[in-house]
Write a structure and sequence with these properties.
- The protein is mostly helical.
- Helix content is 60%, strand content 0%.
- Pfam families: YuzI.
- InterPro entries: YuzI-like.
Length: 45
């Protein structure tokens, strides 16, 4: 995790900007969207 960046003097705004530029952030959001879709719109077989 990137939690030590707050200890090195980053402000919360800089921390959020750094995290939003990481690929893991986009993968996390994509995963949440896929889980939400699969829960609320399941396929019927």
């Amino acid at each position: 995790m990137y939690l030590n960046l707050l200890e090195t003097g980053f402000t919360m705004k800089e921390y959020i900007q750094f995290i939003s530029n990481q690929t893991e952030c986009y993968l996390f959001i994509a995963g949440l969207v896929m889980m939400t879709i699969s829960i609320y719109f399941p396929t019927r077989q």
